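ligand=zinc ion
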Amino acid sequence: MAILILPLINDPLSKIEQRYLSKVVKQDNCWSWNGFVDKKGYARLAHVGKRGQSVFAHRISYALHFGIEPGDFMVCHKCDNPICTNPNHLFLGTAQDNSNDMVSKGRSPCRPIFGELNPRSILTKEEARYIKLASMIRMSNKELGKLFNVHHSTVSMIKLGKSWADIEI
Ligand SMILES: [Zn+2]
């Protein structure tokens, strides 16, 4: 399960960003969408995928806002509003139960992998590895700490190799 980290600014991403920004309607709470909406109510942006397929707009919003391509993880809604792409309403998660018919309806309950919604207060190896990788992009210890719900000094210790030193990236 890989998390890919995109550089915060590169040409293709900024083109996607422009297209995303031309469709999104930012509001105080949930954000609305002026573009294509699929049968399940999800906002989508066309011609983004490698084979020209459309991609969920909330995944694009997450990648643009946090500088993280969600890869194999799901981007889930705290607000249960599939059209919404407000990054403050989104979190990375995994499907709680793949056999659950909620999944086939596209309304899968998500298990958060980290952050404030995760009851665990300690980092997993995968999260620590991610922090190491994230040190290559311009994301501050404070921002990373907020994302993983740990103190920025914990992030600093990992980046400096003073904790989780055995992790290879
Ligand atoms: Zn929302």
